[in-house]
Amino acid sequence: MAITYSKVIQECLNILGAVAGGTAVAADTNYTSTPSTGTVVGPDFLSIQVQDAIVGCQGEIVEAIASTPLHPGRARYGDVTSALANRAAIPRTGSGTAKLIIGVPGAVRDSSNSETLERMPLENVRGFNRFSGTIYSGSTRYWYAINAGRIEHTRTNVLIDVCVFERPIAFNGNIDLDDEYEGGLVQGAVAKLALKESMFGDLFTGANSQWQALLARIRNYGNPDIFGEAQAAPSAT
After folding, report:
1. What are 79-136's pLDDT values in tens digits?
2. What is the DSSP letter of 83?
3. pTM higher than 0.70
4. Which of 144, 165, 186 is a domain's end point?
5. In angstroms, what CA-CA distances link 47 with 3, 4, 44, 172, 219?
6. Can you say how many angstroms the Cα of residue 59 is from the centroid of all Cα atoms in its chain?
7. Cα angle: 100, vertex 102, 105; to 5 degrees
8. What is the mean pLDDT of the chain?
9. E strand segments, 148-236
10. Residues 6 or more apart from 50 whose CB is under 8 A from it?
11. CA–CA separation, 50 and 53 (whole Å)
12. Residue 220: how many CB atoms within 10 A of its CB?
């Protein structure tokens, strides 16, 4: 299954009372048709306006996922940096997609053997590198630290697993989100639009409450107090 832009737009227009139709048949026809200026009541809530609100919410959902280290949805937006030498600046775009990197970094891996590095205090990484030929001669360390937008590490080159996102430019297909986000996406878009009409204050309050709850649920995957440090998701039982 998949969420389509057209379907979510129509769901939002329905909640906003913007689907045209003086009879049940006409309303049903307009609701099931491709959203257009001919399927809405008037100029207050146009399908293109709803589309923009949906895309804004889509970006916020992806950002929340990308900023939550334990969230299993990160893989959907995954990319990897180019190979980075010690003290290299962390790039702004992923090497595989050229899309903008968002959220927090994922695993750091040796670019030659894919061994995962361990995050350590900056002084440990620098100390090992400074004395790698003397005190630590013959030792191997897979350590890294991130400092002011740069990565310092103890290997030759490393790769960083990252999340990437860019605003979609095509809206005639599926939304790049899992199906479970459909309801929250609708409520978020409605919340962004409802205050355009002063009479929709209660609608905004209800929709925004559900929207903020969705974002909080996404971010809570990274809360060890709720799910435990070793878990990525709540138990099924």
Report:
1. 999 999 999 999 999 999 999 999 999 999 999 999 999 999 999 999 999 999 899 8
2. P
3. yes
4. 165
5. 16, 14, 10, 13, 30
6. 6
7. 120
8. 92
9. 150-153, 157-165
10. 9, 12, 13, 16, 35, 189, 193
11. 5
12. 15
Work out the burial of residue 52: count CB atoms within 10 Å of its CB; fewer than 13 is exposed, 13-18 middle, 19 or more buried: middle
* Pair 113, 66 in one domain: no
Q: Which two tokens stand for residue 148?
A: 């002011």
pLDDT tens track for 167-206: 999 998 899 999 999 999 999 999 999 988 888 999 999 9
Question: Residue 207 in 3-state DSSP?
Answer: helix
Enclosing domain of residue 219: 5-71+167-227
Query: Which of 196, 137, 113, 139 shows the shortest CA–CA distance to 204?
Result: 196
Q: In this structure, what DSSP letter does residue 177 have?
A: S
Q: Is residue 237 part of a domain?
A: no
**CA–CA separation, 99 and 123 (whole Å):** 32
DSSP label at residue 200: G
Q: How far apart are CA 210 and CA 212, in angstroms?
A: 6
pLDDT tens-digit readout, 198-218 = 889 999 999 999 999 999 999
Going by the DSSP 8-state scheme, the letter that residue 111 receives in this structure is T
Residue type, 201: G
Query: Domain total for the chain?
Result: 2
Residue 101 · residue 79 · CB < 8 Å: yes
CB atoms within 10 A of CB 99: 16
Ramachandran bin of 114, using left for φ above 0, alpha for ψ from -120 to 50, beta for the remaining angles: left
